[in-house]
Design a protein that fits this description.
alpha/beta; Rossmann fold; Alpha-Beta Plaits; 4 domains; six-stranded mixed beta sheet; 12% strand; elongated
Length: 539
């Protein structure tokens, strides 16, 4: 850490001695400047950051006591040591009253002065380290809050006002626009059938981290938001009116597509929204891009959204709107609305099947896969019901049978949802929120605010549902994820600690040891397996 000192005295010989005799570099003072009076010193301090000031009291133009008063008036918080030949207590008292931290009598005892400087240099460095920690903590909190805000905007959970959220002074929401990319794990509903909860969590976590790392070298302001299992949106921030470079966006997309393939051994498709999107249009743009990616027949590709103008596409989008209504009605437990939307879907399908039977069948297949993921996301589909849907889907050969599957899927999901208490659904949402934010500095207040319930009610519900406190559950989930990552990746212990929410390696090691009886390095060495922990998807 580099420190700066200012020597203020009108006696040039004293200033020269201070410069030469004190080993400033020994105490990390890399810049040693001088001023001949208080007025020049004040001008210097107002223009340059200064950590330590050694200042005489008696000087022309502005004396040391007046200089101290001016520093205080300007709100400058420097460590000031006074040099004085005055032994009168009134001078010392005035200096200390106006902010001086210490004083040294002339003639100067340089050994004593060096001891005092060493003490204050340590205090200054400790104080600056604390300020850096607090600033980093605040910046991290702001990033988390901003990403949470973007997530809510993207999923249309909140309305947007340019004055509603300013995450720093330079970047106002109405002066920003975004490149929107959607990354979707190919055939997720099908390939995830054989995964247990631990494997689902690890794979989703791993993909998100790969996506974050893929663009790290490009100096972009971006967020990777998981919108549901197997699906992420990447938002790259730009200033308003900046140009859109589709070739560059293609390059970013290709980099992410290849990174997932190489590091997680799974394939993804990447959807590109072809223009920059203002924040109040993100929700609509996301829905359009999601539909385009899900209806694409090919895997492991980059898809650019094209302007939709034809009547068949209008029908297609109206059908997706009905699908969203169906999912929303299940979440709200509104059976009448669900049945009404399903009937409208039937009517719309007749129009499509009249033009192309194959297109109608294709759309229904995609819709079933989409609903399976949505129902799994809100945890209203049992494993038995999901298995039954897959069995029926493998045997279905007609539009009628596909519609029967959808109706059964909706009824099973609705019944599962209505059989649950509201408190159970709250805890499902809490668990999902924790799983998606393990790397963040999570607290009970944040989650209870997210759920819209009180801190005490959340704590009581959580303990009743999971049989342990929120902190116990959070720590256990983080350590379980860390164990998997230690065996499944070559990241360092410190990197893995940060990825699961522990910014300090020592603390991460201590917590890990408490839960497992070994350090992270010992655990990795003992349990190393040449086979990947990820499920084998090659067959």
């Amino acid at each position: 850490m580099e420190l700066k000192v200012l020597l203020v005295d009108d006696e040039i010989n004293i200033v020269r001695n201070l410069q030469k005799i004190i080993p400033w570099h020994k105490y990390d003072f890399t810049k040693v400047d001088t001023a001949s009076n208080g007025a020049k010193a004040l001008e210097y301090v107002l223009n340059y950051d200064t950590d330590l000031i050694l200042c005489d009291i008696r000087m022309p133009q502005m004396d040391g006591l007046s200089f101290l008063e001016k520093l205080k008036d300007h709100g400058k918080k420097c460590t000031v040591l006074m040099l004085t030949g005055y032994q009168d207590f009134d001078y010392v008292r005035s200096a200390l009253k106006n902010g001086a931290r210490d004083y040294i009598l002339k003639p100067i005892n340089y050994e004593e002065l060096e001891r005092i400087i060493a003490k204050h240099a340590t205090e200054i460095k400790n104080r600056k380290l604390e300020q850096i920690k607090e600033r980093n903590k605040w910046n991290k909190a702001m990033i988390v809050a901003y990403e949470k805000f973007l997530y809510d905007v993207l999923l249309d959970y909140t309305t947007v006002s340019s004055r509603q959220f300013l995450f720093d002074e330079e970047n106002k929401l109405d002066e920003l626009q975004y490149t929107l990319l959607l990354i979707d794990l190919d055939d997720y509903s099908q390939i995830s059938r054989g995964w247990n909860e631990k494997e689902r969590k690890l794979i989703n976590f791993a993909v998100r981290n790969v996506l974050l790392d893929a663009l790290m070298s490009h100096s972009l302001a971006y967020a990777v938001l998981q919108t549901r299992e197997g699906e992420w949106c990447v938002l790259i921030q730009h200033q308003k009116n900046s140009g859109y470079d589709l070739e560059m966006v293609h390059m970013w997309s290709r980099k992410m597509l290849n990174a997932v393939s190489e590091n997680v051994k799974l394939t993804v498709s990447v959807g590109i929204y072809p223009v920059h999107v203002p924040i109040d249009k993100l929700a609509d743009a996301y829905k359009q891009l999601q539909r385009t990616v899900h209806l694409s027949p090919q895997n492991h590709q980059i898809i650019v959204l094209e302007e939709e103008v034809s009547q068949p596409n209008e029908l297609k989008y109206s059908m997706w709107g009905l699908v969203e209504e169906i999912v929303s009605s299940i979440k709200k437990r509104d059976r009448d609305k669900m049945e009404q939307a399903f009937q409208e879907l039937n009517n719309t399908l007749r129009e499509i099947s009249g033009q192309s039977l194959q297109r109608a069948e294709q759309f229904l297949h995609f819709m079933i896969l989409h609903l399976l993921r949505e129902m799994h996301e809100i945890n209203v589909l049992t494993s038995e019901d999901e298995k039954s849907v897959w069995t029926m889907l493998e045997r279905s050969i007609s539009i009628k049978s596909l519609l029967d599957i959808i109706h059964k899927l909706l009824n099973d999901s609705f019944n599962s949802s209505t059989n649950r208490k509201p408190s159970d659904m709250l805890m499902v949402s809490a668990k999902d929120y924790i799983d998606k934010n393990l790397a963040n500095d999570l607290g009970v207040e944040e989650i209870s605010d997210y759920l819209g319930i009180s801190y005490s009610y959340f704590s009581m519900l959580f303990k009743q549902t999971f049989g342990e406190t929120f902190l116990e559950y959070l720590t256990k989930q983080r350590i379980e994820l860390a164990k998997s990552m230690l065996l499944a990746s070559d990241k360092s212990v410190a990197q893995i600690g940060k990825l699961v929410g522990y910014s300090e390696r020592r603390y991460f090691t201590r917590v890990f040891y408490k839960f497992t009886g070994s350090t992270p390095s010992e655990y990795r060495e003992k349990n190393a397996d040449p086979k990947s922990i990820l499920p084998d998807l090659s067959s």
